[in-house]
Fold each of these.
Amino acid sequence: MSSNPHNPHDLGIDPDERTLDQHEPPTPLIDEGTRTVRPRVVRTHLSLFVRDPEVSATWYQDVLDMEVTARGPQWVFLSFGKKHHDIALIRAEEAATAGGIGLQHYGLEVAGDLDNWRRLYGMLLTKGVHVVKTTDHKVGFGLYFTDPDGNRLEFFHETVTDDEEGKRILGLYGAPSEPFEVEPLYG
Ligand SMILES: [Fe+2]
């Protein structure tokens, strides 16, 4: 169905039924030139197989300050405070084991300055969370730790806030991940 820009019913609502800002074009579901369908990702969520969703949910509430938004016998959904869910925890098969293929880590870009990031480091250690490493990515610092099932998460403190500059630096340094010695802060 073709849209008519002069038809008020074609303005304001996106093909995926989001309400648009006044000057925002609707999602180009199909590129007119190539006829290919293109996704326009606006938000993301992650779903993980875990041994025990309730045990893991308690950890995600405690360590990441998430809130449970829905739960069933085999699953728990958690939010960082806005969305219906940012992370879903799904009960894995009884015999499931973690393998070398799959999720490497889930990066959480956190607000605040470097000292706040160091305080998160201190918080993880205080709670007995396994911290894997701290690294310098040239566009920010990464603090890697694991959940109860060994899934790796990252608190990312961004130091290059201009996205175009960030892309340039990542390419220039070859997606750098250098050891970064930093002391945690407590309180
Ligand atoms: Fe990352």
Amino acid sequence: MVAGPQPRSSDSTPKKTSLIDTSHRHAIVTPVRRHLFVCTNARSSGKPACGASGSDVLIAEVQRRLLARGATDVLVTPCGCLGPCFDGPTAVVYPDGVWYGGLTPDDADGLVEHLIDGKPVEAKIMEPPGS
Ligand code: FES
């Protein structure tokens, strides 16, 4: 069977069909209050890298505390190199745009306070790269 011309509406305009699946539009999405990105970059070259400086342990400590507090509107995400490798482990909190350097697992409580209450860890704030 050979397909013929597509049906047209009464005004001769071709009917539009959506190629976008909109069936998820009614899903409940929790807004994100703050998002912490922690560099976990690893290098085999011997150059400084946050991944070899304990960033994985830091992430685990932050996530454990967030779970204990029931915080569901903040996110923690490991990421690649943020730039200031010599100051690692480094991290940044958005949307605040607060950059951190020299973090240790002992900073987990402070980072959780920042994520939930918006109070930065003043002692670990660093200038954003390129500023
Ligand atoms: S390796 Fe972490 S900032 Fe570059």
